[in-house]
Predict the 3D structure of the following.
Amino acid sequence: MKNLFTILIIPSFLIGGLAQLNHLQGNEMKVQHSSLNKNQIGYLFFKVEKDKSGVEKVTLQDQKISEGKLKFTPTYDRNSANVGDFIITLTNASGKEIVKQSIEDPLNPVMESFEDTIQRTKLSLQNAEFSIRYPHSVEVSMVKVEKITNGGNQLLLTQKL
């Protein structure tokens, strides 16, 4: 009788323990998936080219998403933006603005050099690359790039992501 009791009890403990272990592993996977959506950084890589007539064309080269959290989230401040700077706006499907950043004019960067003193020289380029990073959200579905001009903002790119 003791042997029969032992033969029936030990397998039931083993089956019950394995069932609990599978249940715990399933919950652990759910926690990992939910945390992946919260702490991600999105990167957008652009290229801008100026043709012979001076018209600028912006293209989205690549986009990447990585794990992490931004320590500082850049924001758009109209007072600190200058003529020639680019405004990058990320929106959701309904057009609601989620992220808005400004980038210094990539075709006219200011380079610093040091000889006896620090000198700043403004360069004029025909093409350049630039990128932005932002806290990634699944809501982001469109990117818009504008250039600040004396007469207002000039739309350079609108593209779905």
